[in-house]
Design a protein that fits this description.
This is Polysaccharide lyase 14 domain-containing protein. InterPro entries: Polysacc_lyase_14 (IPR048958). It comes from Marasmius oreades (fairy-ring Marasmius). The longest helix is centred in the middle third of the chain and has 8 residues. The protein has one domain: Jelly Rolls, CATH 2.60.120.200. Strand 14 and strand 15 form a beta hairpin. It has five helices and 18 strands. By secondary structure, the protein is mainly beta. Helix content is 9%, strand content 36%. Strands 1, 2, 3, 6, 8, 14, 15, 16 and 18 form a nine-stranded mixed β-sheet that branches. It has a seven-stranded antiparallel β-sheet with strand order 7-17-9-10-11-13-12, covered by helices on one side. A two-stranded antiparallel ribbon has the order 4-5.
């Protein structure tokens, strides 16, 4: 089976902060050290909480505990062997725990980064200078919540964003203007670790129809984004969870865009017939790497000081289509 960070058989090129993953895929992945990510991953528009510290994360739950909580994933021993049709595989659980990670700190009482008590962090990243997005990308990362994490009502996790020039930014927070010129697809945790996609897409009737049809529960939030596929997966405390999100742009004038989400290598949400743009000027920009509790009201706030860790940031271009270099 495929690596949970890249759960697809074919892609053209990409990058990752996971050195072992880059070695497995050899020339197709550029390795970027997490310690150099602020410069080498095109990080920009950092929120007032600042750029997160890079730390050695705590050890996850014991492997036997993980096996009862997380889906089993087989990792290919060598991508080259797989392409040659060889059957030798290395049967493992999820990849070894990362040795370095971004640390997100959510103080007691914190909600979103602009609140009186800010929590988490936020920035945008485009990938290395030589990364070309094309019209279809997959972006992934791993996240671990502390062992005694309290979920409260919910919070945000990173995803993919894009649109027309600078209008692509801040496509969230209840934004209503120029909504056809941007898109933002992040994740959320909800009560008890229930997971979902949280989307801001152009507000077309067909997008609404397709998003609300996703099981088990999907909802349109008044003045905010859509909660999509709530309950299709559940986050687990104290162990690394691999999140991979694929976005395929629609052909201008058509509704043939796609979204797909994998958790630990398992496809849990797949949506077709979407529209992300009405102009060729709209492109995939990269990752909206943001996390916080909320919501915007105090009943969403973290009940205590809490931490989560993010690692193995990866991005790949899938289709060999006319490409546009990502701009910062």
């Amino acid at each position: 089976m495929l690596h949970p960070s890249i759960p697809l058989p074919n892609f053209h090129h990409g990058f990752s902060t996971n050195h072992a993953l880059c070695q497995a895929y050899q020339w197709r992945l550029t390795h970027v050290k997490l310690q150099n990510s602020k410069k080498d991953l095109g990080v920009h528009k950092i929120s007032k909480t600042g750029f997160p510290p890079i730390v050695s994360p705590p050890s996850p739950l014991l492997q036997e505990q993980m096996s009862s909580l997380s889906p089993s994933v087989e990792l290919i021993q060598s991508v080259e062997e797989q392409e040659k049709g060889e059957d030798e595989t290395c049967r493992l659980q999820l990849p070894p725990p990362p040795t370095h990670a971004f640390e997100a700190f959510y103080p007691k009482g914190s909600i979103n980064p602009s609140a009186p008590i800010p929590g988490g962090f936020g920035f945008y990243l485009t990938g290395p200078n030589d990364f070309v997005s094309g019209q279809e990308v997959l972006m992934s990362y791993r996240v671990m919540f502390q062992n005694d994490w309290e979920w409260v009502k919910g919070g945000k996790l990173p995803g993919i964003f894009g649109g027309v020039g600078d209008l692509a930014y801040k496509c969230s927070g209840g934004r209503q203007e120029n909504r056809c010129k941007c898109f933002d697809v992040r994740l959320m945790w909800r009560q008890n670790g229930t997971g979902e996609l949280y989307t801001y897409l152009p507000p077309t009737e067909n997008n609404k129809k397709q998003l609300l049809a996703v099981p088990p529960v999907s909802r349109a939030n008044n003045d905010y984004g859509f909660s999509v596929g709530r309950g299709s997966f559940t986050f687990v405390k104290g162990t690394w969870v691999c999140i991979a999100l694929r976005l395929k742009m629609n052909t201008v004038g058509e509704e043939d865009g796609e979204l797909e989400l994998w958790i630990n290598g398992h496809s849990v949400i797949s949506i077709q017939r979407l529209s992300f743009r009405d102009s060729e000027m709209a492109t995939i920009k990269g990752m909206h790497f943001q996390t916080f509790f909320g919501g915007h009201t105090e009943d969403w706030a973290s009940p205590k000081d809490q931490r989560a860790w993010f690692a193995d940031i990866t991005g790949v271009s899938i289709l060999n289509t006319p490409s546009i270099h990502l701009t910062r």
